[in-house]
């Protein structure tokens, strides 16, 4: 079997035989990048079907999985999302206008503002997340589950070696 990454590597070997031995990381990273683009395109479409952008979907699901009271500080999002504070602020502003989240003062420290999921946000998150899981299942419908599991285990090992072991 051969895929697009094999073709790219073949082109480099033909064009630059001197780097042929150095192309081995492309075997993994090239495929991860191509897969990420496919997943991203599909996930954006699934989120859009619920009237939210993919980044907004990430905020909604982060709040939902955080458990009661379904509220986090902007700083908690910054650590998890690795985006600028301006990007988070802009995203939250848009979501607040849509009625998905609200800003609330912390009861213990009135200086702290948390972003909390609204009832409407819960509804959208439940529906969008269900479709998100269906979408993922459809993407992998023709892939053997054992292969998915083994690939996941291999990628977990790579991430552990690279130091990505916790949600920040």
Keywords for this entry:
single chain; 168 residues; mainly alpha; three-stranded antiparallel sheet; 7 helices; 3 strands
Structural summary, described in words:
The chain is mostly helical and 168 residues long. The protein is 64% helix and 8% strand. The chain is built from 7 helices and 3 strands, in the order αααβααββαα. It has a 3-stranded antiparallel β-sheet with strand order 1-3-2. A hairpin with a 7-residue loop joins strand 2 (101-105) and strand 3 (113-117). Helix 2 (24-48) packs across helix 6 (119-139) and helix 3 (54-65) packs across helix 6 (119-139). The chain starts with a helix and ends in a 7-residue tail after the last helix.
Q: What integer is the average pLDDT?
A: 91
- Rg over alpha carbons: 20 Å
Strand order, sheet with most strands: 1-3-2
The helix-and-strand class reads: mainly alpha
The biggest sheet, with number of strands, parallel, antiparallel or mixed sense and barrel status, is: 3 strands, antiparallel
Structural topology:
Elements: H1 4-15, H2 24-48, H3 54-65, E1 71-73, H4 74-81, H5 85-97, E2 101-105, E3 113-117, H6 119-139, H7 145-161
Give a quick precis of the structure:
64% of the residues lie in helices and 8% in strands.
């Amino acid at each position: 079997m051969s895929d697009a990454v094999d073709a790219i590597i073949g082109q480099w070997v033909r064009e630059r035989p001197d780097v042929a031995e150095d192309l081995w990381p492309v075997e993994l990273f090239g495929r991860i990048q191509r897969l990420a683009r496919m997943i991203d395109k599909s996930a954006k479409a699934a989120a859009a079907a619920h009237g939210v952008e993919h980044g907004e979907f990430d905020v909604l699901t982060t709040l939902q999985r955080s458990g009661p009271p379904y509220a986090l500080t902007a700083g908690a999002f910054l650590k998890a999302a690795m985006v600028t504070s301006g990007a988070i602020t802009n995203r939250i502003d848009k979501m607040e206008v849509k009625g998905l989240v609200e800003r609330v003062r912390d009861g213990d420290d009135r200086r702290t503002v948390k972003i909390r999921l609204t009832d409407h946000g819960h509804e959208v998150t439940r529906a969008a997340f269900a479709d998100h899981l269906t979408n993922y299942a459809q993407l992998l419908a023709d892939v053997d589950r054992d292969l998915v599991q083994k690939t996941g285990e291999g990628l977990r090992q790579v991430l552990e070696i690279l130091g990505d072991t916790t949600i920040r």
